[in-house]
Amino acid sequence: MSTTITRLCARDIRFRTSQGGHGSDAVHKDPDYSCAYVVLETDTTGLAGQGIAFTLGRGNELVCAGVTALSHLVVGKTLESIVADMRGFCRELTNDSQLRWVGPDKGVIHMSAAAIINAVWDLYGRREGKPVWKLLADMPPRQLVDCVDFRYISDALPEDDAVALLEEHASTKTQREQELVRVGLPSYTTSAGWLGYSDDDVRQRCEQYMARGWTWFKMKVGFDDEQNVRRARLIRETIGDEGVIMIDANQAWEVDETIAHIRLLAKYNLLWIEEPTACDDVLGHARIARAIAPIGVACGEAISNRVLFKQFMQAGAMQFCQIDSCRLAGVNENLAVMLMAAKFGIPVCPHAGGIGLGNYVQHLSAINYIAIAPSLDKVVIEYSDHLNEHFVEPLQFEGARYRLPTGAGYSIKMKPKSLDEHEYATPC
Amino acid sequence: MSTTITRLCARDIRFRTSQGGHGSDAVHKDPDYSCAYVVLETDTTGLAGQGIAFTLGRGNELVCAGVTALSHLVVGKTLESIVADMRGFCRELTNDSQLRWVGPDKGVIHMSAAAIINAVWDLYGRREGKPVWKLLADMPPRQLVDCVDFRYISDALPEDDAVALLEEHASTKTQREQELVRVGLPSYTTSAGWLGYSDDDVRQRCEQYMARGWTWFKMKVGFDDEQNVRRARLIRETIGDEGVIMIDANQAWEVDETIAHIRLLAKYNLLWIEEPTACDDVLGHARIARAIAPIGVACGEAISNRVLFKQFMQAGAMQFCQIDSCRLAGVNENLAVMLMAAKFGIPVCPHAGGIGLGNYVQHLSAINYIAIAPSLDKVVIEYSDHLNEHFVEPLQFEGARYRLPTGAGYSIKMKPKSLDEHEYATPC
User: Fold this and answer.
1) Judging by beta carbons within 10 Å of its beta carbon (0-12, 13-18, 19+), is residue A337 exposed, middle or buried?
2) Do A101 and B28 touch (CB under 8 A)?
3) Under an 8 A CB cutoff, do A102 and B111 touch?
4) B254 by DSSP, 3-state: which?
5) Where are the domains of chain A?
6) Is CB count within 10 Å lower at the N or C end of chain B?
7) pLDDT in tens, B83-96
8) pLDDT in tens, B160-170
9) By CA distance, what is A31's nearest residue in B?
10) Fold of A5-130+418-422
């Protein structure tokens, strides 16, 4: 019995998070956490796939329209034919001979491809009755590598090297899977240090998160050095010397400016500076990394594709790799980037501040640890607890650790009531 | 009397160029030359601004939708307020706190910004009664630099260096302006060597273009080495030893593959290889450039923004700078890139294969020569004569040279009949 995708629909779902200052930083002052919510309907009773691309509100309609523009490459295909050639399917979706001009591999059209590919994995997991992380964990090395398009990254990671890398760790996969099922994945919190919060807010939130088990804290920084220093001191005093502090500039600074800002903050013992400058500036980040070591540079949430990630790694411009599950073209391109990170020895600490991103990256971080990079040294997933209540299978935490999801699929299905109440435009 | 922008409208205009194999290459097999055609209506009788972003067909509706998404940043503003702070206007248009997530500075939303900014320049030129190149040529150095956003490029080109660079050549501007008015701008043709043409077609077209004065020819290359070599030989035999050959892979190859392909073709004396590999791969292009010198690397038509151009220049990855008038955010970001090219000593040879691109780049190349980089050594504009008949002010050539446009504005206004006949969706 094959399953044919009969209809593809993208819904424009938006939450008014800007009203509480949640998610505010130096560049994104008023984010309304939103998503293009894709449903793949099938001819198999009760079987549908859900996928999202995350946005900040305005522009969400463009990603929905991009999904519609790609639908001719999806509707009418069987799940079996897609799964039999994942690499080919992803290549087709990101290389339409006309659509690629408005990318390629970046911006609206790439995020639309991400939402669709993520929905295909949800469908695949549901059909197999497995969470996506488990689906991936059960794949032999060759099958997992066959999901990845090595075009434009073969100079940094030849396909055979990727297979060898996976084979090296294949025999110990079960141990790590059992470990994760037992203890979950470590996280850090961003929810204490948004730029829109007052000092009192920040202190109280740090204390609340510490009481619940968190020891890693990320703080947003901006143009006001006095404020940056005051908050770093406040957080360091609140969490003590054992706690870990990371800071995040959200691309606010110039290259030389960054080096000057960091000099003022270094005494608070920072693990990383995240997105100091333009997300496309490989060489700029490399210069910053050399100047501020041993503080690392973290980035990735705004890096468009595997070709740019490749260069950040080649140039030593990225000490922490922050994949984004919805900006890269879904599970498959994230696998490509995690494989490269393993080759370059860079820990993967996914971006998850937004709606639905934690749901996704718990699967990606699990498969990364189980099959690709068998170490949790300096590996943490971002934790942000906004809007969790809208999901059918919400994130589960014990202390500061993500519990592995157990339901079939990619954990992204939202409650019908939430969808209806937060639909921005007419349903499709 | 001030001029207020009262309405912004984007029309989805498409031509079925794929039917003749025109514009076909290794990656874009069936381009339908299209554009998001923006009209800025004003409260001044008879005054409107037109602007476009070029696409290949599918996806054009997304750029139109992006224009609509940006309209709240344009409608209601006066032309005078925009012109008084061009830098601020462009920054606002490319940094909307929510929309930048679906970019930033790349893909659909950036092309939408380009169409709008280009329309503002058309409006500005019409209001002043000057072609855009002349409007720019008459600006003192400081005013021209004030059009440019130096954010994220200040490490390569500090603002003061840009002013100094322009001041160095300011006293001789009039001479160069007179020269261009007299003899026009040199061009090369791509129209003889599209991948979809037969060998006979290619030979005949070369001969026709030579008879009309062209001596520089670009040929598309693909995966078939035998075909690539046969065509290079054919063109070299047809145009003789004095003619110049460039080749264009449109991102078809891997880094190492490129070096191997070029080795087979080098004996036909090539000036440049254009877009050998992924448009985002600065480090890959740098490696290719080192391996194939003295053949140069040319790229730019798919490079999203000034930050990436900066790195191509810093890394020695680009020997010919091919700005795209509609992918970069309009006139202003093109000025930024041309200023960096002048600083790095790289000739600017704009991309113009498409609809309306020649109309635009004649202005950009003119201002580049008059005010920014006073040399025509190795400077050529792409020439492609498709669809010229649809413009109110079509391109004018004498031999292989673009004649400078004389009408007010940015030469992009299309005939009402052409617009009506080629509108893809419902008019707005």
Assistant:
1) buried
2) yes
3) yes
4) coil
5) 5-130+418-422, 165-415
6) N
7) 999 999 999 999 99
8) 999 999 999 99
9) B98
10) Enolase-like; domain 1 (3.30.390)
Confidence category of residue A386, pLDDT binned at 50, 70, 90: confident
- Separation of alpha carbons B54 and B57, rounded Å: 9
Q: What is the C-alpha separation between B384 and B352, in angstroms, rounded?
A: 7
CA-nearest residue of chain A to B17? A98
pLDDT digits (tens, 9 = 90+) for B19-30: 876 677 778 889
Instruction: Judge: A32–B315 Cβ closer than 8 Å, yes or no.
Output: no
pLDDT tens per residue across span B46-103: 999 999 999 999 999 999 999 999 999 999 999 999 999 999 999 999 999 999 999 9
| Chain A residues within an 8 Å CB radius of B258 | none
In angstroms, the separation between the Cα of residue B425 and the nearest Cα of chain A is: 14
Q: Which residues contact B415 (CB under 8 A, 6 or more apart)?
A: B390, B391, B392
Tell me which chain B residues have a C-beta less than 8 angstroms from the C-beta of A10: none
C-alpha B185, offset from chain centre: 15
The string of DSSP letters for B222-247 reads -S-HHHHHHHHHHHHHHHTTTSEEEE
More confident residue, B342 or B21: B342
Q: Whole-angstrom Cα distance, residue A235 to residue A246? A: 11
**DSSP-derived secondary structure for A349-375:** -----SSSHHHHHHHHHHHIIIII---
pTM: 0.97
- Using a CB-CB cut-off of 8 Å, the residues of chain A touching B29 are 97
Interface touch B98/A277, C-beta < 8 Å: no
Tell me which chain B residues have a C-beta less than 8 angstroms from the C-beta of A63: 102
CB A340 within 8 A of CB A97: no
> Which chain A positions have a beta carbon within 8 Å of B59's beta carbon?
69, 98-99, 101-102, 109
- Which of the four pLDDT bands, split at 50, 70 and 90, describes residue A194? confident
Indicate the residue of A28, A98, A109 with minimum beta-carbon distance to B30.
Answer: A98
pLDDT, position A196: 79
Set B351, B363, B390, B413: catalytic member: B351
In CATH terms, the fold of domain B5-129 is Enolase-like; domain 1 (3.30.390)
Please give, rounded to a whole number of angstroms, the shortest distance from the CA of B256 to a CA of chain A.
Answer: 7
Clarify whether B351 is annotated catalytic.
yes
Cα separation, B285 vs A311, whole angstroms: 11
How far is A69 from A113, CA to CA, in rounded Å? 10
Nearest to B155 among A109, A251, A254 (CB): A254
The per-residue pLDDT of chain B, averaged, comes to 96
Quick one: pLDDT at residue A29? 83
Average pLDDT over residues A195-221: 93
Determine the topology of domain B165-417 in CATH: TIM Barrel (3.20.20)
User: How does residue A21 score in pLDDT terms, banded at 50, 70 and 90?
Assistant: low
Indicate yes or no: CB of A31 within 8 angstroms of CB of B277: no
